[in-house]
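Hey L., structure's done. Input below.
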Amino acid sequence: MDQRVYASRIKALQELQKAQGLDCVALVPGANLLYFTGLAKHLSERPLVAFFPVAGQPALALPVLEVPGARARLPEDVQLLPYSDEEGHEHIFTQVAGALGLDREGVSLGVEYLAMRLLEARRIEQAMPGCRLLATEPWLPTLRMRKDEAEVALMRRAVEIAEAAMARLLQEGAIREGRTELEVASDLRVAMLREGGEEEAFAPIVVAGPNSASPHAGPSDRPLTQGDLVTIDWGTSCQGYRSDITRTYVLGEPSTEIERIYDAVLAANGAGRLTARPGMPAQEVDRAARRAITLAGYGPQFLHRTGHGLGLETHEPPYMVEGELEILQPGMTFTVEPG
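Output:
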């Protein structure tokens, strides 16, 4: 992404946090940090926190070994405040507070309730006594929900890679009787890398037979057997943007009951996709898919929501679930998961 894209995103963040009455937003490694800076980092024992004041450029508290990568990615006027392993990180948060004028009473900071650890929260509270830490989740996702053309293109590429990996497995006969769920999952992971995938969107789910009825079961050493339903849920990423695909196959000839279940799920998937359109509450997608499953007689077995937003995170707003009144808009990307 061009630096102008990140500058525009940070400006939008500052405008929104001003409306929320916040002095600063503090982000830890993850999807939000990647969205606003392009920095793809992971949480570790060495804290890295980016502070976005309501005006002016951000400042980063970070390990000294991360400085070269951050400096190559970020504009020159972004303040980097590094610490070494020998020094430890305790003092660096005090330096950040002073550099950004946050070393005063009554400071309000937006933090990621679902991502920030107690480690970072305690360091901030020690550096800014009396500060208030407020969750960003009620408002920050609105900045990421609508994808632009570049983001959608990256997601389409992530889908193409995942589908090419599955095609490779099918061509090679990897999904066959006698092979274990774990073996198929391992082949799928390798295939995604060979097709150009980056980080997995999540650990691939390959489950068969009795395991295939559990939405989030993990692959086991159970061998695939004739007549099994084999459910595969997988995805990869392209420059951080993810794909999430589910496919169900049958080993051998399907029974009448399996055909009935398959048709019910296919109808639910189609109903959800046909219902989704701009101006509609997200819950209507769930209602349409759930109605099709219920009419087929399998309502009690539909244990989960119909779908979720997809982007820099595998699960992000908006959610296709009863009670979700978020209005669907052009550029929103989400899954319809009966599959």
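The first helix runs from residue 3 to 19. Residues 42 and 303 are 32 Å apart (CA to CA).

-- N.
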